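Q: Second attempt. The first request was missing the SMILES, so the protein and pyridoxal-5'-phosphate are both included now.
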Amino acid sequence: MERKRIYLSCPTMHGEEQQYVQEAFDTNWVAPLGPNVNAFEKEMEAYTGCGHAAALSAGTAAIHLALKLLGVGRGDIVFVSDLTFSASCNPILYENGTPVFIDAEPDTWNMSLAALRRAFEKYPNPKAVICVHLYGTPAKLDEIMAICEEHSVPLIEDAAESLGSTYKGRHTGTYGKYGIYSFNGNKIITTSGGGMLVSGDEEAVKRATFLATQARDPARHYQHSQIGYNYRMSNVTAGIGRGQLLHLEEHKARKKEIYQQYRSAFADIPEIALNPLNPDGDANCWLTCMTIDRNSKVTPDMVMDALAEVNAESRPIWKPMHLQPVFAAYDFIPHGEDGGSVGENVFDRGLCLPSDIKNTPEDMELLIGTVRKCFGK
Ligand SMILES: *Cc1c(COP(=O)(O)O)cnc(C)c1O
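A: Got both inputs this time. The predicted holo structure:
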């Protein structure tokens, strides 16, 4: 019999989700609006302290609307984290803007302050900065905010992977002019698919909701003075989100435990390092990642192959955006003066470990033993 599959990160349902979905069916609110959508927004506002929230069909849609609200258009430069998933920067291209990729730094794997400063020297007037909190680790928000404020450029926080993470006691996603969350299937909580745009600016969030519902003017007939989008969250999936939100803290606690388990299990193998946390924050540890020292004979592919053999899912680190064929034409600002790319180094030497919260102690033992064996332990 084949060994059961161990996942990187997949949905964990609890029961309340189905009750909220049942309510949607019972009341026939099966539409991209309704009581679950409104309540999910209120509950996320209360949980994160974000001010105002618009529930949307995806995190990508939330980034797109944030860029629309900031007026990003043809030829406008937007600085964006280089070490991330392509959804962080695709919406810049939807608006015919020009991404400039900012390297990661070794401390957090998030936006490098040195590279960001150098980017401002080269391009003094970007329209926005998008910084990602990779794998749940908060970026150095105080410093990034200070640099952005110095140049009067608004910050968008891509907190798709970091819902539940805090920085200096406040939730990631609530520092920038806009924050975005994702509820995709592999994120720390899910609605199957969905996202949220948040901001302290109530008018802006109202405008986002307007744009997300086809930009229909207030008139009896169908009247439109602007281009709109069909980006609103469904009342059915919002029900899943409400049920999930009740368990977010529990998911975070378990994710953190998995990170610590891996950390202590590999403590005696000096070639292994885990993805960095930020001492000024409390990370949700969405995925635990490891890097292998350049001088080791073991490669990330060898570890991924060994995990595949016990039917465990692992995956490479996000491939940096400046190495993606589709973004080859755009500029990249490295962390170091010598031009070396931190993100590329992490990509070459790293992998994401199975971090699913349903992993049993036996699963963890198997995973840890499998990785250790690669290093002759
Ligand atoms: C998942 C993810 C997104 C996109 O969110 P969707 O809800 O899948 O559209 C954006 N940025 C990052 C960093 C992500 O991991």
